[in-house]
Amino acid sequence: MKYLTIDTTTKVSSIALAEDGKLIAEGFLHTTKTHSERIIPMLDQLFTAADWKLSELELIGVVRGPGSFTGIRIGIATAQGLAQVLNLPLIGILSLDALAWAGWGREEDIVPILDARKNEWYTARYCWTKEKEEAECLTSPQALTTGEWLEQLKDLNRPICFVGDAAGKAKQQIEAVLGERARVMPDYISLPRGAYAAREVWRRWQEVGAGEKVEPYYIRFSEAEVNWAKKERARKGETHE
């Protein structure tokens, strides 16, 4: 089965072409351009380089969050548009699940951390099981302050492998709390990659197949939604008076 994956949940635009779980081609851009400027040219170049045609695709996978609210919407809209035009099944995966593949086979717990702004991370915790060769989620995806999450991990008294776009920036902070128990992966391993998404899409496809509705996975409300809720509460308070 030939398929395409799209990940625009962080500042990195990453796409991949894969067949039966095997990576065929990968696109990666970490520049100042927006996802809307990058994604279509990247797709065109990748298909040309791989000598694939859109008509050959049998599945489209997209990373649906958590991450950048705008990036999530761009990725899902692009994937949905292609799936509708090509009449293909669409499957969604989580960014943290995909990033767990950056620590494939490691003995430490794998902890992806993505920049959620406001001194917070989107994060989860995984461990690799040798029997199934897949990552078991030990702590569900959540948004936590950096200090709170590191203190929780410290209490576990286990070696931790950190991946994700926040890992390199927070290396000193992480090591100050966890010391030698921390392993912070470099950017070329840590950042979201099409290869990780391709592998997680294939695992998810084999597990559940098509049929799930692909919706954004934000974890928390956006700033606009928070401000709107405040205005609504204020308006209702004024109305009651």
Automatic annotation (TrEMBL):
Pfam families: TsaD (PF00814)
A biological process term (GO) from this entry: tRNA threonylcarbamoyladenosine modification
Location of the Gcp-like domain: 32-195
Record GO cellular component, one term: cytosol
Stored InterPro entries: ATPase_NBD (IPR043129), Gcp-like_dom (IPR000905), T6A_TsaB (IPR022496)
Gene3D superfamilies: 3.30.420.40
Record NCBIfam families: T6A_YeaZ (TIGR03725)
PANTHER family: TRNA N6-ADENOSINE THREONYLCARBAMOYLTRANSFERASE, TRNA THREONYLCARBAMOYLADENOSINE BIOSYNTHESIS PROTEIN TSAB
Name the record gives this protein: Universal bacterial protein YeaZ
The species this protein was found in: Desulfosporosinus acidiphilus (strain DSM 22704 / JCM 16185 / SJ4)
